[in-house]
Amino acid sequence: MKFNGYYILCFTWIFYIVGCIHNDDQNHVEEGRPNILLIVADDLGFTDLASYGGEINTPNLTALAKEGISFSSFYSGPTCSPARSMMLTGVDSHRTGFGTMHGDWADNQLGLRGYEGHLNHDVVTFPKLLEDEGYHTSMAGKWHLSSPKDEQHWPIHRGFTRSFAMMQGGAGHFEDMQPLLKPIGKAGYVEDNAVLDSLPKRFYSSKNYADKAIKYITESQKEKKPFFHYLSFTAPHWPLQVPDEFIDLYKGEYDDGYDVLTKSMMTSAKQLGIIPQSMSLPALPPNVMPWNDLPSAEKLKAIRSMEIYAAMVERMDHHIGRVIQHLKETDSYDNTLIIFLSDNGAEGNSIMGYINTQDWVDESFDNSLQNMGRLNSYVELGTGWATASTAPFKWYKAFTSEGGMRVPAIIKYSKNKKLKDQFITQIATVLDIAPTCLDLAGVTHPGHSYEGRQIFPMTGKSIVPFLSGDSTFIYEDEQVFAFELFGRRGIRKRNWKAVWMEKPYGTAQWQLYDLDSDLSQEKDLAKSHPAILKELLDDWDMYAKENNVTLPDRPTAYATEKFWRKDK
């Protein structure tokens, strides 16, 4: 059969059209893979956000909460690096390398597997698995899972295509690279595979982390790849600092003190349905002086600390809004899973007793009332405000009580319109983030082996079945949730929680609380419900054995007396 030019032209157009349809279908599949934006605040309290009953202006997170779901029983870790290691791997911190924090080993923990003080290779991060499957992965902000000298554990080697990372647990928020502690020297920043010697002029952490987030997300869009971005703020971690133009945003708002703020937050939280109407105002912890007993000069400094803290949170919210607006302007918002949480409870511990920090701060910084919050100042939040920020829960960061670990958490998932603008009372944890992100992306965790090495499988659970409406629950009623850090222990099952904390914070014995009726953990039921306590302790023993928990043989880090602070 002979084909004339007309038929050849027809067949050419047919093959061209079929090819376009095929390519469009490929592009559609690629665009159908969800983007993921994980946003983490540093030391933000449970009731700080406006959507959780707080007084701080956080309109962007409030809008996100209205479009998604908020959790009233979301557990993170007691402190930052253990929590972040679990978040990025879905594996318990005693297996990730953070059985304790770097530098805080007891003698019997030195050299143990799971206690390395950096993110070890017994686990694989979920960003690495996403990267393997074609995602553009990036992060901007706090890393705290290895040191600047430990290059093999930098973000770029643990699953991030692009990264701008502040490597330590904290730093000053401006361009001077102010260290967190005197022995550290200049704060360490790494961009991709290079250590930075300086930061841009007018650098401010929240702004510049958001700038990098937008830059990296734009790169993924140009490459037509789905993205995962980890936006890891250092706000509102101490030292409390905010640019001069925003330093008076909350001037006069806290003159009535933290007692009044606690009552106000609890009232708002009750109105939102986050806590029961029957809850009474919890007693002040023994290391918090009643506001009216503080000397006038101390009140003024305390008020200024909280004003700066609130301004930091508002500016963080503003920059979150910039990133979200970029997603909307580039038609990426609807196809992006957005997760927001705090890494632990508010910070009420004082760092001034650590090594010679108080002397260093006195010698190196101007903490006068007029200069607090500026570049050359070094300010903490204090126990009273931290107690208000975690109301109605007991204690704050570094504790396995509710105040140390129950955090605000918001998830925006556009596929299920029924899950909008509501609080979820079911328990979820930081361990669930990795399996949820992998599940939504259609990526399978390798289980026990990755790149020729043995790894631990994830212990968290995907929330996707609940988010999509395929399941009415996240965990079964009998699920056990166990925690340990610095020897402080906690175990949650059903409405019961058992905790062990050393004196003066606890009794150095196991205590038992019914969280249905006692969220503030004020009534110890250990003696009246011995069978329930035994059940939980049996669960604890199983958890400790499975995860090779080694309790410290002496007080470490936040569990030492130097961190006991009384506002006075």
Can you describe this structure in just a few lines?
The chain is an alpha/beta fold and 568 residues long. Helices cover 31% and strands 14% of the residues. It is built from 14 helices and 18 strands.
Structure notes:
Helix content is 31%, strand content 14%. It has 568 residues and is of the alpha/beta class. The chain has a single domain, classed as 3-Layer(aba) Sandwich (Alkaline Phosphatase, subunit A), CATH 3.40.720.10. The strands form 4 sheets. A 10-stranded mixed β-sheet has the order 7-6-5-4-8-1-9-10-2-11, with helices on both faces. Strands 15-16-17-18 form a 4-stranded antiparallel β-sheet, covered by helices on one side. Helix 6 runs parallel beside helix 8 and helix 7 runs parallel beside helix 10.
Considering the chains and any ligands shown, give keywords for the structure:
single chain, 568 residues, alpha/beta, Alkaline Phosphatase, subunit A, ten-stranded mixed beta sheet, four-stranded antiparallel beta sheet, 18 strands, 14% strand, globular
Got a strand count?
Answer: 18
* Beta content: 5-15%
**What is the distance, rounded to the nearest whole angstrom, between the alpha carbons of the first and last residues?**
100 Å
Based on the structure given, which CATH architecture is correct?
A: 3-Layer(aba) Sandwich
Instruction: Count the domains.
Output: 1
Helix content: 25-40%
pLDDT below 50 for ≥5 consecutive residues: which ranges?
Answer: 5-30
Determine the CATH superfamily. Answer: Alkaline Phosphatase, subunit A
The largest pleated sheet is described as: 10 strands, mixed
Given the helix and strand composition, which structural class is it? alpha/beta
Spatial strand sequence of the major β-sheet: 7-6-5-4-8-1-9-10-2-11
